[in-house]
């Protein structure tokens, strides 16, 4: 079984082109114009063991908001497409990742209902050209469009770079657990996940 999806989304503010393969090896090629965001998406792909190819252009002269949010929208929609009716998947995923002094926990459910809880206190305004306020915005866009219940908790830490990196690594590992095929049944007593 090969579960993949591709999409180009173009607005007056951004053009996002993403290809996704869930049965991957963690390969990625990411070009968004925001170096730290490229690094985070590379980590996500590696730890999820998905293949991810992203080319994103946007009005970075305004700020990074539109490009990062729209990337989350497209990535979420591609997960939704690639998973189909979600038959056979584990559905739930959890990961706890330390990054030096930081500890992050991510728990998620491909429930068909989008919800985000994000507890990550950041002190800096920017990490490179990535606005720290965009972390929950990206996660919300991704969860909304993947129709995913997502709980992100940075339990403690001091360094904002470490906190955000731990979030993306833990998210990748939780996704890897949730999307794996475990049998051929739909993982819901309701008989549908939507």
Automatic annotation (TrEMBL):
Broadest EC class assigned to this enzyme: lyase
Compartments in which it is found: Cytoplasm
Pfam families found in the cross-reference section: IGPD (PF00475)
Enzyme Commission number, as recorded: 4.2.1.19
PROSITE patterns documented for this protein: IGP_DEHYDRATASE_2
Reaction catalysed by this enzyme: D-erythro-1-(imidazol-4-yl)glycerol 3-phosphate = 3-(imidazol-4-yl)-2-oxopropyl phosphate + H2O
InterPro entries (UniProt xref): IGPD_sf (IPR038494), ImidazoleglycerolP_deHydtase (IPR000807), ImidazoleglycerP_deHydtase_CS (IPR020565), Ribosomal_Su5_D2-typ_SF (IPR020568)
Keywords: Amino-acid biosynthesis, Cytoplasm, Histidine biosynthesis, Lyase
Any one GO MF annotation of this record: imidazoleglycerol-phosphate dehydratase activity
Pathway of action: Amino-acid biosynthesis; L-histidine biosynthesis; L-histidine from 5-phospho-alpha-D-ribose 1-diphosphate: step 6/9
Keyword Amino-acid biosynthesis: yes
Keyword Amino-acid biosynthesis: yes
Family matches, as NCBIfam families: PRK00951.2-1 (NF002111), PRK00951.2-4 (NF002114)
Similarity comment text for this entry: Belongs to the imidazoleglycerol-phosphate dehydratase family.
Name of the molecule in the record: Imidazoleglycerol-phosphate dehydratase
Species of provenance: Amedibacillus dolichus
UniProt gene name: hisB
């Amino acid at each position: 079984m090969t579960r993949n999806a591709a999409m180009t989304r173009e607005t007056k503010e951004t053009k996002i082109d993403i290809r996704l393969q869930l049965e991957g090896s963690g390969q990625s090629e990411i070009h968004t114009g925001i170096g730290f965001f490229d690094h985070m998406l590379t980590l996500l792909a590696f730890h999820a063991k998905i293949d991810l190819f992203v080319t994103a252009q946007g009005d970075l002269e305004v700020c990074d908001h539109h490009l990062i949010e729209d990337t989350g929208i497209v990535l979420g929609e591609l997960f939704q497409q690639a998973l189909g009716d979600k038959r056979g998947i584990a559905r739930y995923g959890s990961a706890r990742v330390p990054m030096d002094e930081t500890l992050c926990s991510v728990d998620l459910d491909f429930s068909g209902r989008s919800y985000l809880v994000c507890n990550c206190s950041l002190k800096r305004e920017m990490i490179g050209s990535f606005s720290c306020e965009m972390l929950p915005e990206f996660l919300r866009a991704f969860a909304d469009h993947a129709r995913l219940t997502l709980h992100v908790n940075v339990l403690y830490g001091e360094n904002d770079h470490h906190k955000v990196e731990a979030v993306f690594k833990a998210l990748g590992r939780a996704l890897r657990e949730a999307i794996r095929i475990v049998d051929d049944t739909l993982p819901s007593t309701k008989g549908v996940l939507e």
